[in-house]
Design goal:
heterodimer; A: 814 residues; mainly beta; Immunoglobulin-like; Maltoporin, Chain A; 2 domains; 22-stranded antiparallel barrel; 6% helix; globular; B: 305 residues; ten-stranded mixed β-sheet; 37% strand
């Protein structure tokens, strides 16, 4: 342990071998919370502060009873505005008197109501969706979590109704595909799993499905995400200045909230497209009190392909499915319970000889408790598991051989979070979290005839504990500050084999010195960090703001992947006695305005990100099922910076956005190239996204997406070593990513036709053209000898999407 | 557009191990089926550089052995690397304490011990010394044991979407028991290296240490001497050459072979093959790339009838 502290590169305030400083900080924190709580209880009976009362309540959809997240409540006179939290709850302190309240939310009709405050007032408010009214195509009411009404920078929110209008891949609306149209978000190319936010790596995104982390967000590589569009309510991406409640990843937080389920009536949604079908059912268990949703999808490309396959291929299996379910019970006015779960699997089997499966399982139990109208507690318990297995079997040549490999990662967590609507100047959020990790790197069994040999890697364990507090403080009517701190401690635990390596030339496989089995499940290596998160917003004039922010974040688990796209068999690995946690500092500043009399939002954000101890790999690293894998790893620095510009219009017959990002992303690792800065895989300096939705009439809606991106960096050979008849590509500079693939561009089109809108059954057809002008964008360029004439050398461009992909989907709802 | 470009190919050298092999192969096939991914040879201008390197594999076969010292050309240049003639190359059998001075003729440095005599002996340690351009370079390697190829056989298979109509050859060998053995396997069609197959490297007849010691070579390696997109035809002479490698020579070949087909969704970052010749001359900055390796070699062939 001391060995690592000695090497500590972080100027962290609470790093100490004895943890005493952390303990004292924790104590202070708890004392602070107790102090606040005591004060709170005393407030429940009388006016909150010098004659003020509390106006609180929940906002819901009038038709299906879904709570509305981040809806805006504004009060006049006084110009006070607040937003509902992740459970649709709001609370405002008001002096006695008469007020006009406006409740607004994207896609919903604005509701105004007069209230008379002479005592604490609690209201349950229902808003009517404009879609539900089926009148006009023009969508009115507008206000949600957007740049003008948040303090922090780098927040982007998308609701499913918006995502469903965008052109989709194979007719399936997709959360992650939509995300890739946002400024600062990119990927390694078509079909690549995962996404990069502001030049970070794909494993640096905390993807939460109802608070449970999701380790692999993709079905069929990167083509579809695991999130069923019919079960998702809201998607929020934090690219910088993350709220203090989130931690454990350094690049972004993608917070996906599932629908609660219709608590008014039975409702069925579904869709059939050329690649898969989905159906969801939601209904009240007890009207207004409890409801559930259950949503399922399955792909059937293997059924469709069967008639075209020959021989053994007829037995090929290739499908994925997922099941998403959630239920909620409102026990009484103060207590609500939620239970949500996700199960998904991808299954591939070829010719009866090879079988590959992977999938996620998550479960979340949440308890919302209202101590009083100003103090809201949510406690979440969650479980998440990612597993894969790979099986080979062959009896060819009369020799029975098989290979069986399986691996998984399991996570258990608990997170209580308290929101305290102190007054109209302070809203405080505080809480704690503990996560227990169990990594099973895997077992591979090779059977050859009667002989079996196994390579078994035993489990690795870790815990991540955190305490956080954050105040959103309206300092003056023009200045707001959101300041928080997150204290985290990570322990790599025993009950496993510990590996110790000798030092060697960086970039060369580290030789193993010795291995020790430590039986006790007690800390082997410990790190503690304090992560400040600060954002400041200044209102220049009405609807024009400047913002600035700083955040620090740390990461203790790492995806072992050295391929262009992560594969389903890559595994997360904890920080160990040999792998330091990575740490990122991000500075950002921005400007946003809504020009007077327009519906346009114009914004600009700049960021600078400094990354420490980013994981990298020696050349030709062996990352799978390798007990000595820590000897294959390198840790280096990274930096990224850029400017994101966006113009957006979310109201009216024409809606859409255009964003342009200029950004760079670099890495520097001793042992890679000659130790200089080199471009990361996600260094794509120029990215332009344009997305337009046009509501032609009540029947037809058209939409288009266009993307232009600089090519992905690549390493090419400048010479070759002709050895024993093989032409081995060689890069004489040794530097990585000095070239670029050709620039990427793609246009997608879609048309939505509303079919018969009956009293009960409502239906629509979605026609799509993905990659409409059939551009074979380069995913990679590789080099080979011509198969027939080895003296000819070839550069080969691989395009994952070689052509235009048409799609048709039929969606229904009753 | 080419739906067949990413056929299932257990022998594919995309793969560094059987696990990633399977996963990648399965997924690529899936993608190709759904999306019609396409590959196209494109014109590309690359800057060209030139390095001095050694192609230095010496076998345990009797007769003439030769190595080449070459000046490399740009990857896409159609020209051949230029032989360098002004070096002195000496092989030393350190176990016997015997020197073999290699002389330059016809683009290569060679030594002829007589048609029945082998200079490569199993278990012996060898040093190759290259004196070139005022500097002296040295590398060492050990010649490892090599089991025989027991047999080759073939079967006719019909087009099933993955495999084309034709004859599929399997080769059979049993790993030598005890200790890790490293092999390099290559297929020949009518005396020429079969450009449709990928050379294989193997540990104990499988892909990983301690999994297959002393056993039959595993299925994917056995049948990697046939390419699914171009199986053999009646009249073809199919040859299989298997070489034994030291651990360091195996690492060199493994990295090199990965670079030969490093495309696709799961391409790894390009890595340079290591070199084992070390410059012994103090203060001299010269480098010679490439590899010196001592290999045991066995071969077998079969005519498809």
């Amino acid at each position: 342990m001391t060995r690592f502290f000695a090497k500590d590169p972080y100027p962290s305030i609470c790093r100490s071998g004895t943890h005493e400083r952390l303990r004292s900080l924790c104590f202070l924190f708890c004392a602070l919370m107790m102090f606040h709580s005591n004060r709170l209880y005393s407030q429940t009976t009388g006016p909150a502060r010098s004659g003020q009362f509390t106006f609180s309540g929940y906002l819901r959809d009038a038709v299906n009873g879904e709570t509305l997240l981040n809806a805006t409540i504004s009060i006049s006179p006084g110009g006070i505005a607040t937003q509902t939290n992740a459970y649709g709850f709001f609370s405002i302190a008001l002096a006695p008197g008469k007020y006009k309240v406006s409740f607004s939310y994207t896609g919903y009709t604005l509701l105004q109501q007069d209230i008379d405050i002479s005592k604490d007032l609690s209201l349950n408010v229902s808003l009517l969706s404009t879609a539900a009214q089926l009148q006009e195509v023009t969508i009115t009411a507008e206000k949600k979590l957007r740049r003008t009404n948040t303090v922090a920078l780098g927040i982007q929110q998308m609701d499913m109704s918006r995502i469903k209008k965008m052109p989709s891949f194979m007719g399936e609306p997709d959360v992650l595909k939509a995300l890739l149209t946002m400024p600062g978000v990119t990927s390694a190319g078509d079909g690549a799993a995962g996404f990069s936010v502001r030049g970070g790596n794909t494993d640096e995104n905390l993807i939460l499905l109802d608070e449970a982390p999701v380790f692999n967000s993709s079905h069929l590589l990167g083509f579809f995400s695991v999130f069923n569009p019919d079960a998702v309510k809201n998607v929020t991406l934090y690219k910088s200045a993350f709220p203090a409640e989130y931690g454990g990843r350094t690049s972004s937080v993608l917070d996906i909230r599932m629908k609660d389920g219709n608590n008014q009536r039975l409702s069925v949604n579904g869709g059939i497209s050329n690649i898969f079908s989905r159906i969801s059912l939601e209904a009240p268990i007890q009207k207004d009190k409890s409801s559930f949703i259950i949503a399922a999808r399955r792909s059937y490309i293997d059924f469709l392909a069967k008639p075209f396959l020959k021989g053994d291929n007829k037995n090929n299996v290739m499908y994925f499915y997922d099941l998403t379910a959630k239920a909620n019970w409102k026990l009484n006015e103060k207590n609500t319970l939620y239970l949500s779960s996700y199960i998904g699997q991808d299954v591939f089997s070829f010719g009866g000889q090879a079988n590959l499966k992977w999938g996620n399982t998550t479960g979340t139990f949440r308890w919302n408790h209202l101590f009083n109208t100003r103090l809201f507690l949510n406690t979440s318990l969650y479980y998440s598991r990612y597993n894969y297995s790979l099986l080979f079997h062959s009896t060819d040549d009369n020799i029975s051989q098989s290979y069986d490999w399986r691996s998984n990662i399991k996570t258990y967590g608990v997170k209580p979070t308290l929101t305290w609507f102190l007054n109209n100047h302070h809203q405080i959020k505080a809480g704690a979290g503990i996560i227990f990790y169990d990594f099973y790197p895997g077992q591979g069994i090779l059977s050859n005839g009667q002989v079996k040999n196994a390579v078994t890697l035993i489990d690795r364990y870790g815990t991540e504990s955190s305490l956080f507090a954050e105040d959103t403080w309206k300092i003056t009517p023009k200045i707001q500050l959101q300041a928080g701190i997150r204290l985290t401690r990570y322990d790599y635990l025993g009950h496993t084999d510990l590996y110790y390596f000798r030092d060697t030339t960086p970039g060369v496989r580290k030789p193993l010195d010795h291995t020790i089995y430590k039986d006790a499940r007690t800390p082997v290596a410990t790190w503690t960090f304090a992560e400040p998160r600060v954002s400041l917003r200044y209102e220049i004039e009405k609807n024009e703001y400047i913002k600035a922010g700083y955040s620090r974040s740390t990461q203790y688990i790492h995806l072992l992947s050295n391929t262009a796209s992560p594969t389903p068999i890559d595994l997360y690995y904890p920080s160990t006695n040999n792998i330091r946690p990575s740490l990122t500092d991000q500075f950002s500043a921005g400007w946003v305005m809504i020009p007077r009399g327009t519906q346009w939002e114009i914004s600009a954000e700049a960021f600078y990100k400094k990354m420490n101890d980013v994981l990298d790999f020696i050349d030709n690293a062996d990352l799978n099922l390798n007990p000595k894998v820590e000897g294959e790893l390198l840790q280096g620095k990274g930096k990224s910076y850029g400017i994101e510009l966006e113009v957006k219009k979310e109201i009216g017959r024409w809606q859409g956005f255009a964003n342009y990002t200029w950004s760079r992303s670099w890495r520097k690792t001793t042992g890679i190239g000659n130790g200089d800065w080199y471009r990361s895989l996600y260094d794509r300096p120029n990215i332009l996204n344009i997305s337009v939705v046009y509501s032609y009439n009540s029947k037809w809606t058209f939409s288009a997406n266009f993307n232009y991106s600089s090519g992905t960096p690549a390493t090419f050979p400048d010479t070759r070593l002709d050895i024993q008849g093989l032409s081995i590509p060689f890069n004489s500079s040794g530097n990585r990513n000095t070239y670029r693939l050709p620039a990427y561009n793609r246009l997608d089109l879609s048309a939505i036709m509303k079919g018969h809108q009956g009293k009960k059954l409502k239906q629509e057809w979605v026609f799509g053209l993905y990659n409409a002008y059939a551009r074979p964008n380069a995913y990679s360029i590789y080099f080979r000898q011509n198969k027939d004439n080895p003296s000819i050398k070839e550069a080969v461009r691989l395009s994952i999407l070689g052509t235009v992909l048409p799609s048709v989907a039929w969606n229904f709802n009753f | 557009m080419n739906f067949s470009s990413n056929k299932i190919k257990f022998s594919g050298r995309t793969l560094r191990s059987p696990r990633s092999a399977a996963a990648i192969v399965i997924l690529l096939a899936a993608i190709a089926m759904i999306l019609g991914s396409c590959e196209k040879v494109i014109p590309l201008s690359l800057p060209a550089n030139s390095l001095t390197y050694l192609d230095g594999f010496i076998t345990d076969k009797p007769g003439v052995q030769s190595v080449k010292l070459l000046k490399s050309v740009g990857y896409l240049d159609n020209g051949n690397p230029q032989p360098l003639s002004n070096a002195n190359i000496t092989l030393t059998d350190l176990t016997l304490g015997k020197d073999y001075a290699f002389g330059y003729t016809n683009g290569a440095y060679s030594y002829d011990p007589g048609s029945a005599v082998a200079i490569g002996l199993v278990g012996h340690v060898y040093r190759l010394r290259v004196n070139y351009s005022g500097a002296s370079y040295e590398a060492r390697d050990t010649l490892k044991r090599i089991p025989p190829i027991d047999s080759l056989n073939y079967t006719y298979k019909k087009d099933d979407g993955n495999k084309k109509d034709g004859y599929y050859v399997s080769f059979f060998a049993v790993d030598a028991p005890g200790a890790s053995d490293y092999y390099w396997i290559r297929a020949y069609r009518n005396g020429q290296r079969n450009g449709y197959t990928f050379d294989q490297v193997s540990i104990d007849g499988a892909y990983r240490e301690d999994t297959n010691d002393g056993l039959e070579f595993i299925y994917p390696i056995r049948q990697a001497v046939t390419a699914n997109d171009k199986p053999y035809l009646i009249g073809d002479t199919v040859g299989v050459v298997m070489r034994s490698l030291s651990k360091s020579s195996y690492d060199f070949m493994n990295i090199s072979l990965v670079q030969l087909f490093n495309g696709g969704l799961f391409a790894t970052v390009m890595a340079n093959a290591p070199a084992n010749l070390v410059n012994q001359t103090a203060g001299d900055k010269g480098r010679i790339y490439g590899w010196f390796g001592m290999v045991g070699e066995r071969e077998s062939s079969i005519i498809i009838k």
